[in-house]
Write a structure and sequence with these properties.
By secondary structure, the chain is mainly alpha-helical. It has one domain. Helix content is 72%, strand content 0%. It contains 11 helices and no strands. 15% of the residues are buried.
Length: 261
Amino acid sequence: MTDFGASACIKLVDQTAKPMFGKIFSCANPCTSHSVNRILSAAEKRSRYFRRLFYVRHMDFEYAIWQMWQLFFEPQRVFRNFNYRKCSRQQWARDDPAFLVLMIPFLIFTSSGFAVCMSLNFIQSIEFIFWVVFVDFIAISLLQATFFWIITNHFFIDSSRSRSSQLSTLSPSTETNPEVEWGYAFDVHLNGFFPSLCILHLLQLPFLYIILQNWFIGRLVGNTFWLASFTYYIYITFLGYRSKFTLLYKSFTTGVFLKTR
């Protein structure tokens, strides 16, 4: 190959490689919908999610277990993967219900341990497990996700950034949805609920005899477990909504207000 041909080839490869690697490593920026064929509506996402509940073979349990482990030691990595999902699939919420499915047998197992420690009979144990799974977990999770979904969409959406992102799109079909998805609010709650559940339902069990005693040490140990559980939930919930780039940060607004005074 001549020098001219080699230089032309190197120039061509360099020009094609730059945009390719630029797209790969630009997931920190808001992504457009060119990476997917079309953006699914909320009803389609919900329908696909609930359909996958009945197809266990299609669930990635290994990835769900990895997420559960990371929520204890490095929860930022979990929400970083939410950003990658937004870049690749135009969806913040999980499309795989494996995380939710794994939590139900875990709840049954830990609730059975609580029932044994509290010396409940068989009927009382069944009632206790049903209450924990269907009321404490499912019903409260639905209410909590709906509450945060309403609050964030009404008070924390950066409308100016949303309008600028919509004006920068090429066509109406490529507009980015600035609102917080209900499914994402549900996932954020599950992420915060799982470490809290492990603290209260697993780590607290060996100390249950001390906690149930009418001692100052018992009350101190019990309240410490609840404080750690509540702190974990607040911190992970904060990380979840902070990773949504369309939210306004009240700390920035407060800082500007104090600075002007």
